Amino acid sequence: MGSSVTVGDRTVECGAGQPLLDAFLRAGVWMPNSCNQGTCGTCKLRVLEGDVDHRGSPLDTLPDAERQAGMALACQASPRGDVVVSAPGAGEAGRSTHALRDLVATVREVTEVARDTRRVLLGLDEPLAFSAGQYVELVVPGSGARRQYSLANTPEEDKVLELHVRRVPGGVASDAWLFGSVAVGDRVELTGPLGDFHLPGESDDEGEPMACIAGGTGLAPILGIVRTALLRRPDREIVLYHGVRGRDDLYDVDRLAELQAQHPGLRFVPVLSDEPVPTGSACRIGFPTDAFVEDQASARGWSGWLCGPPAMVEAGVKAFKRRRMAPRQIHREKFTPADAPGSGTAAA
Ligand code: FES
Prior knowledge:
By secondary structure, the chain is an alpha/beta fold. The chain folds into 3 domains: about 80 residues, Beta-grasp domain (Ubiquitin-like (UB roll), Roll), CATH 3.10.20; about 90 residues, Translation factors (Elongation Factor Tu (Ef-tu), domain 3), CATH 2.40.30; about 130 residues, Nucleotide-binding domain of ferredoxin-NADP reductase (FNR) module (Rossmann fold), CATH 3.40.50. Helices cover about 20% and strands about 30% of the residues. The strands form 3 sheets. A 6-stranded antiparallel beta sheet has the order 9-8-11-6-7-10. Strands 15-14-13-12-16-17 form a 6-stranded parallel beta sheet, with helices on both faces. A hairpin with a 6-residue loop joins strand 8 and strand 9. Helix 6 runs parallel beside helix 7. The longest helix has 14 residues. It is globular and about 65 Å long. Bound molecules: FE2/S2 (inorganic) cluster (FES).
């Protein structure tokens, strides 16, 4: 039997064993969230009334002292009877999100785009409403495992989802499935949209200049965000740094060059960390966060968008602050490849 769970002025039904976050998001009630796996702590909330079962909540993310103080991870905990919770901003009148849904899709296309990197297109049976930058969770056929992949789509592209997948040797999703047994026409179950790494709604978008730094397949959500921002304001000022190891890891260079030709405010800079750059190449050498600091004297008034490995994201936050970007304007998504052991945050 289900329970009633309340945040602010919103009350929803939550099934036995269903995580609180899942119940709120399915009802379209916004709640802070990122990894949906108990590892990032973004969804930490306070239980004001009633009791919860912490289920798989890791002690690293939610230590005993915090449990005793009434804290819980919304993506893991399920209610024991009716509960009332509070989380910053959640449940406020008018604060809603695209409802989380279970969907079925058909594999339309699988393309090798770079070393150990594939673009996967999934045709949905029904359109999915989401914000640019969010991710979906795929159910890996035959294993029941779930893996998270960010969407490279703009919200208008709501019928065919574009995912960028990096192969992880031995990974149940990437190696065995999306680099192995997958075939065009296969049916795929998925859940989405998830995550708070996304552009604000159009009415809240101030049109400020944007600095975007992506590492590897962290380019996927950044592409969705940048293309959406340019659809809203074709002359928006945007710098986009894509960091990879070598030229064989670069992809979508032509696509970005074309976008740059259409939008003079966009500047795309590929950055190679492990390879010399040939004379005349548009590539830079080093780390994309260093290239940003070298190029930009000030980012005051800009917003910043970071998606990639944790070390790159942390370096990016420092780089943005060094160039005077306001902390509230810094948006980040850390990921490890979806199949990596211990991967816990939204993956691209
Ligand atoms: Fe719950 Fe990350 S710990 S969303």
